[in-house]
Amino acid sequence: MSTPTPSSSNVMEQIVSLCKRRGFVYQASEIYGGLRGFWDYGPLGVLLKNNIRDWWWRNMVECPPIGPDGSIVDMVGLDSSIIQHPKTWDASGHTATFADPMRKCVKCGHILRADHYWDILATQSKWFAELMTATENGAKTDVDTLARWVKNKARKSAPNLAAVAQPTITPPETADVKAIVHALADNNEPCILCGGALGSPEQFNLMMVSYAGLQQTKENLVYLRPETAQGIFLNYRNVLDTTRVKVPFGVAQVGKSFRNEVTPRNFIFRSREFEQMEMEFFCPPEDALKWYDFWKHERMKWWLSLGIKPENLIFRDHAQDELSHYSKATVDIEYKYPFTAPEFGELEGIAHRGAFDLTQHQSHSGAKLDYFDQDLQLRLKAEGVADDEVKKRSRYTPNVIEPASGLTRAVLVLLCEAYSVEPRAGVEKFEFFKFKPKFAPIKAGIFPLVNKDGMPEVAEKLYMDLRQSFACEYDPKPAIGKRYARMDEIGAPFCVTVDGESLKDQTVTIRDRDSMSQQRVAIDKVKSFINEKLDE
Ligand code: GAP
Q: Which of 18, 157, 221, 239 has its CA 20 to 30 A from that of 510?
């Protein structure tokens, strides 16, 4: 992070608020005060999430892209258990290394992620927001104003800040926000809540534990999976033995994962319970780089198909020292979230996992997970490769290319991308979601113009027919303008209205959310009209 500012949270606050008001996402356990890092998807949120999930499944499992050589890509689906044998996590490396560095405030005990300190400070600290206001977002760092803040407001908002307790510490003459914070904290990083000094970083394992069995003993200890991927590796042999796939092939899975994140934050971006969409592609080691490149580009195409603007997505290669313990190469697809802009944040990772996982599970379980590639053997023989070389190359442990994304993070991206503010009749700042029609939770609102004169009967009949094909809502309440506005807010791309004309000529009006223009369409053509737009 370059310069921390609190202002990036404004758009996010509006999105969170609209999501709550219209039933997309609620804080989990809200009536008990909420539970940090957990979210509930409301009536519209679950529809949006299912639409993204179904599109991923359709494009990864049922109709995967054509392979790099024009070949059909073999792909199957899986739904493995959330709780697996605890040895799974020893083999995968999670028990030993799935940890984040955390720091604890020596005064109030608050714990936060050490490596995300400046982002967390900028988005979650009340005293930092005050400090930024006092310095006009770091643009004007008047020493006297800062000193006044330390003497007055900071006594309440950051009572444990070193400068509050020690009058000898004076604010420095600089525009560098990080330097100011360091100086006021006596060369430490201060707690985002009380300003107290943070202790040294300590590693904190992120796996959530439970017990399988009546006794809460060490023998019964199990973990809620921190990724869906391992369930796929455990079933690699089953899939090979029970289906017609041959290497190269992929196994895809969508499901819940759990991580005891030190600092869950940014709405549903980083939560403790979330959903992933992961695919493990098993391929010959000699083709791994070709498939890595293939999936990298296919995955970017898929994100663009959701209607995300190209300028809001980038690739970011992981530096060598950033790679996970299993990875030979990783590239992230990143999105420009309101809280990272103008920079980008992770959306999906495409990793070249080599033979790490199958090798580890083979040695921890004793199961044979290598592969004899008859096709490769025949091809090498035909190419005249020497016998011992053919033997060596055609038995191998497959390499894995893994496109791993977050389904709940995809929901956040579509909410951010679709969030729009425009002046509309009587409303200076009308907020609504401009979803691409295919992903809109509700595709159309069906209304009688007035709730009498035979119009409700026609509208209701049309609604009963349309709902066979896509999600729509029937609303006979008065005030057509309000009904249009409500449909716009939730991102429904069309409103179909039955009016006086409809009874005479069997046509209705279809109103477009974005242009607000209306056109008359024959009642028996409404379904195909909307279906065509959903296919775009
Ligand atoms: N199997 C590899 C793996 O799990 P990851 O980068 O840790 O890799 C993949 O996770 C994706 O899962 C991320 O790109 C992100 O979209 C999503 N994800 C990870 N942690 C998350 C969290 N705490 N909350 C929401 N989504 C998360």
A: 18
Parallel, antiparallel or unpaired: strands 74-77 and 249-258? parallel
Q: Which residue has the CA at smallest separation from atom 19 of ligand 1?
A: 406
Residue for token pair 């005990």: 109
pLDDT digits (tens, 9 = 90+) for 223-257: 999 999 999 999 999 999 999 999 999 999 999 99
Give 355 Cα–ligand 1 centroid separation in angstroms: 21
Q: Whose CA is nearest to atom 14 of ligand 1?
A: 348
How far apart are alpha carbons 428 and 424 in whole angstroms? 6
Query: What is the SS3 assignment for 152?
Result: coil
417: its two tokens? 């991308």
Tell me how far apart the alpha carbons of residues 509 and 484 are, in angstroms, rounded to a whole number. Answer: 12
What's the pLDDT at 139?
Answer: 66
Alpha-carbon distance of 384 to 155, in angstroms, equals 81
pTM of the model as a whole: 0.89
Contact call for residues 235 and 88 (beta carbons, < 8 A)? no
Q: Which residues contact 468 (CB under 8 A, 6 or more apart)?
A: none
Measured CA to CA, the distance from residue 510 to residue 466 in angstroms comes to 13
Other CB atoms within 10 A of residue 346 CB: 17
Strands (E), 259-389: 273-283, 313-317, 329-335, 345-354, 371-372
pLDDT category, 117, cuts 50, 70, 90?
Answer: very high
Q: Give 55's DSSP letter.
A: H
**What are the strands of the beta sheet with 202-205, ordered from one edge?**
111-113, 99-104, 202-205
Rounded-to-integer distance, Cα 159 and Cα 197, Å? 11
pLDDT tens-place string over residues 464-489: 999 999 999 999 998 999 999 999 99
* Nearest CA, atom 17, ligand 1: 406
Q: Look at residues 267, 346, 270, 182 and name the one whose alpha carbon lies nearest to residue 8.
A: 267
Q: 290 is written with which tokens? A: 């070709």
Give CB contacts under 8 A, 24+ apart, made by 355-359.
355/285, 355/396, 355/397, 355/398, 355/399, 355/400, 356/325, 356/326, 356/327, 356/400, 357/92, 357/229, 357/230, 357/233, 357/280, 357/326, 357/400, 358/233, 358/236, 358/397, 358/398, 358/400, 359/397
* Closest to 40 measured CA to CA, from 20, 25, 55: 25
Phi-psi region of 166 (alpha: psi -120 to 50; beta: other; left: phi over 0): beta
Q: Whose CA is nearest to atom 21 of ligand 1?
A: 270
For the CA of 351, the closest atom of ligand 1 is 2
Output the CA 276–ligand 1 centroid distance in Å.
Answer: 7
What is the chain's mean pLDDT, rounded? 94
Residues with CB under 6 Å of ligand 1 are: 227, 229, 259, 261, 270-271, 274, 276, 278, 346-349, 402, 404-406, 408-409
Could you tell me if 333 and 348 are in contact, meaning their C-beta atoms sit under 8 angstroms apart?
yes
**For 8-110, where are the E strands, in sequence order?**
25-27, 39-41, 74-77, 99-104
Strand partners, 278: 253, 404
